[in-house]
Amino acid sequence: MKNKVSFDVFRFDPQVDKEPRFQRYDIEYLPGMTVLEALFHIQGTVDPSLCFRSSCRAGVCGSCAMHIGGRYRLACETQASIALERVVAIRPLAHLAIIRDLVVDMEPFWRHYKRISPYLVPSERPPELERPQTPSQRDELDPMVDCILCASCHASCPMTASDGAYIGPAALMKANRFVVDSRDGNTAQRLHVVGDDHGVFRCHTVFNCSRACPKDLDPAGSIANLKRMAVRELVFKANRK
Amino acid sequence: MIVQDVLVVGAGLAGLRAAIAVNQKNVRVAVLSKVHPIRSHSVAAQGGINAALGNNPRGAFDSVDLHAFDTVKGSDYLADQPAVMKLAKMAPGVIYEMEHWGCPFSRSVEGRIAQRPFGGAGFPRTCYAADKTGHMLLHTLYEQAVRYEQASEREDFKFYDEWMVMRLVVEDGVCRGVIAMHLATGRLEAFLAEAVIFATGGAGRVYLPSTNAVINSGYGMAVPYWAGVPLKDMEFVQFHPTTLLGTGILITEGCRGEGGFLTNAAGERFLSNYGDSSKAMEVAPRDIVARNMQREINQGRGVKNEYIDLDLRHLGARKIMERLPGIRDLAMNFAGVDPIEAPIPVRPGQHYTMGGIDTDVDGATEVKGFFAAGEGACVSVHGANRLGGNSLLETLVFGKVAGESAADYVLTSGVKRAGASALEEALREVEAELKELTDGTSEEKAATIQVELGRVMHEKVGIFRTESALMEGWREVKRLQTRFRKVKVGYGGRVFNQALLQVLEVKGSLDVAEAIVAGAYARKESRGSHFREDYPTRVDADFLHHTISRHQGKENPKLSYRSVDLGLWEPKERKY
User: What domains can be seen in chain A, in order of their start residue?
Assistant: First the structure.
C-alpha cells in the first residue's frame, strides 16, 4: 500500500464477547479521506461485521460523534490523515451502554432531553402572523440553536458517568435555549425542573463539554446562566411568600 | 403483531408534520424511522422555505398567485397546477405555524420573518434561519412531536426509533401495514395499520456525487414500488449548481441569493454568455444554472479544468458570518477554503428527486390507505424542475395534507383491523429472504455495486443525456442488477447488522435507477432538469405528461402516461 492509515477500532458485541477489544485496520489512504469514509471502506469491503451510526457526512446531523485519536469529534469532519503516521484509536461515546461496536444506547440522552420540555411554551395564544422578535433577540439564541445533539458533550462530562440521572450539558443547553427565547413564557417552570439535585447543580464546572463540542458551542455557558437564574428563582422567589 | 391506526414511515419534516396532523384529529399515530428523527436528512437543508408573506421590502407586491406561477414556470409546466396552488396557498400558514411553534427564523429589522431572494422567484419570498433552515425546522418540529408524545395518554403518539421497514403489505389493493426490523435487536415485527404514510425522502444516493446523506438510497421509494405502488416522473433528477468539489456537499443557493457570483477560469461571470441565464444570472433556476456551469466545464473554461468558483468575497465578512455561517464552516472543513478570503470550488451534482411515489393532491396513492409525502412523493408540485425553497415547503404542506387525509380515511372507513394473515405471510417471506441473503459468502459486494451504480448514473443519466448514453446506462444498470443477485451480506449477526441494511438499500437503489433510466430514455424532449442533447427542445404536443412507472419484477418496468393538470396557466416558452 502506497500510503496507508491505521485505525484501532473498538469492537464489542455484548451478546457474544466477554469484553471489548480493539481491531486493527490498515487501509489505503486517498487524499481528503475522512475517518468516516475510512469506516465506510472498512465496513463495505473489508469487515461487514462493523457497525456505526452515520448519515449526512457533512457535520450537521450529529450521528457520527466518536472518540477519535483522543478527542470527541464527528468522524465525518475528521481527516483520516491523522492516522498516517500513527495508529489512531476510535472509540464510541462514553457513559452510554454499548449496543454493539461504535453504536451506543442513546436512550438516556433522549430521556434527559425530553425531560426538560424541549419545546416553546408561550404565555399567550399566538397572533395571526409571526410573533415579533428583533434581530438582537434572535441573536441571543444563536450559539444554542445550532446544537446538533451529537452527545459529545454528554460523553465527555464526568458527571454523566457518576450520576445517570444528571440531565447533562446538551439537555441543559436546550433548556437555556428556551429560557433565553423572548417568545417563551415558561422560565419559572423550566428553572424548577433544571434546578433540582440532578440538574444544573450537578454540574461541577469541569468545562469538558464546551471543549468537546464539535460545533464550538458553549454548554458550560448555558449551564452557568441557568445556575444564576435558578438561584434567583428557587432561593429568592421561594423565600418571598 | 403491533397494531396501529396510522403508521408514518420516515421521521423527517414531512413524516413528523404528518404525524402531528394525524394526532391533531385525535387519531392514534406511530412514527417509524431507521434513524433517530433528528438525524433525518431534512436537517441538512440550508437555504430556506418559500411563502408569499411580503416581509421583504421588495416583496410588497408578492402574492400567492405569483408564488404559484413562479413554481409552475419553474417546473417547465409539468407541475399539476391545482396542486401548486394548494402549495402556495398553504405556505404562509405552515410557516407562521412553525414560528408559533418556536422555529428560530432569522428576522428582519422590523422583527418579522426575514425573506431572501432565491432562484426563479419573482420576489424575495424565501424565509430562512441563517443557512441552517432545515436544521431549525426539523429541530422545532421534533420538539413539537415530543410535546404531542408527552401529551398523549394511552400511547396515542408513539415513536419507533431505529426501526427499518422491510416490506409494505398490500392485499387486494388495500394497505394492511408493514413488516419492519428493530435494528437494535434484529427482531422482525408485523405492523398492522389502517393507514400507512411513507415520508422516506429522496433517492439521491443512486447518483455519486450527490448532496444527499448516505441514508437517501431510494429504498423508501422502492419498498412501495415493489408492493405495486407506481412511481411518477422518475427521470426528473435535480442537479444542484453548487456542490462542493470532491465530497459533493451542498453549498446553498442562498449564497447566490445573497449576491454571490459564479466565475470561470478567466474570472468571468460566464452566465451572461448564455441566453437563458443572461438576465437572471446567478439567480436563474437551478436546471439552467447547472447546465451552463457544466457547459463551461465541458468546454474547457472551468477553473483547473474541473470546477467553477463561487465567489462570496464581495459580500464582506459580516454578511457571510450573519447569513451564511454554515457554508463557511463547510467550505473550511471540507474544502480548506474560507469564503471570506477565497472563492469556493463548486460544480453541479445530484441533489433532489422531483419524481417519487405517485400521489394525488391529497397525498393519497392508488392503494387504499397508503399515502406519501415529502421528497419521496410526487404530487406533482415541482414538475420537471424544483425551485429552491419549495422542497422544505412541500414537506410541511403535504406532510400536513397527507396526515389529515390518512386520519380522515381512518375516521370515515373505520378501524377494520384486517389483514393479519397477509401480514403474517409477509413476515415469513421477509424472514426467508433475509436468511437467504445472510447465508454464505460471496465475492460480490453491495458497497462496490453501489459505487459503480452512482458512477454510471452520473455519467450516463446526468445533466446532459443522449440516446446512446442512456442505452449504455440501461445496460449497465441491468448488469449491476444481475451482479447484485449474487451478493451476500457476509455477516449474520442480529444486532445493528449494518451490512444487511446496506444490501437491502442497494437493491432498492438499483430498481429506482432502472425507473429513472427508463423514463429518461422514453422522454424524447428536453424539459426542466431532463435535457436531451439529441432532443433539445420542449415538445408539449407529445410530452406534456407525467411518466408513470410500475415495477414488473425481473421484467422491465412498465411505463404509462398521465396528462398534466393545467387550468390556470397555459404552457409558454420558459424564459427568464
Answer: 4-104 (3.10.20.30), 107-239 (1.10.1060.10)
Non-local CB neighbours of B52 within 8 Å, separated by 6+ positions? B59, B62, B63, B64, B66, B67, B88, B91, B92, B123, B125
| Alpha-carbon span B246 to B172, nearest angstrom | 48
Do the strands B163-171 and B464-465 form a parallel or antiparallel pair, or are they unpaired? unpaired
pLDDT in tens, B229-265: 999 999 999 999 999 998 999 999 999 999 999 999 9
Burial of A183 (0-12, 13-18, 19+ CB in 10 A): buried
* B319 and B431 housed in the same domain: no
Contact B41 A55 (CB under 8 A): yes
pLDDT band at A241 (very low <50, low <70, confident <90, very high): very low
pLDDT per position as a tens digit, A214-237: 999 999 999 999 999 999 998 888
How far, in Å, CA of B11 to CA of B434, rounded? Answer: 25
Angle at A18 (CA atoms; ends A17, A19), nearest 5 degrees: 90
B336 touches chain A (CB under 8 A): no
Residue B319 forms part of a structural domain: yes
pLDDT digits (tens, 9 = 90+) for A24-59: 999 999 998 999 999 999 999 999 999 999 999 999
Q: Let me know if residue B296 belongs to a domain.
A: yes
**Could you tell me the residue range of the domain that residue B532 belongs to?**
427-563
Q: B126 pairs with which residues across the strands?
A: B50, B116
Contact A83, A6 (CB under 8 A): yes
Q: Is residue B542 part of a domain?
A: yes
Whether the pTM exceeds 0.95: the reply is yes
Q: What is the CATH number of the domain that holds B326?
A: 3.90.700.10
Last residue of a domain, one of B282, B317, B348: B348
Kind plus residue range of the DSSP H or E element containing B328 = helix B325-335
Active site residue B256: yes
d(CA A40, CA B291): 32
Strand, coil or helix: what is B167? strand
Query: Of B327, B348, B369, which residue is a domain's last?
Result: B348
Q: Is the pLDDT of residue B414 over 90?
A: no
| Residue B480 belongs to domain with CATH number | 1.20.58.100
**Same domain flag for B325 and B446:** no
Helix, strand, or coil (residue A22): strand
Catalytic hit among B39, B67, B167, B240? B240
Is B558 domain-assigned? yes
Residues B334 and B454 in one domain: no
Interface of B with A in 130-169 (CB under 8 A): 132, 135-136, 139-140, 143-144, 146-147, 149-150
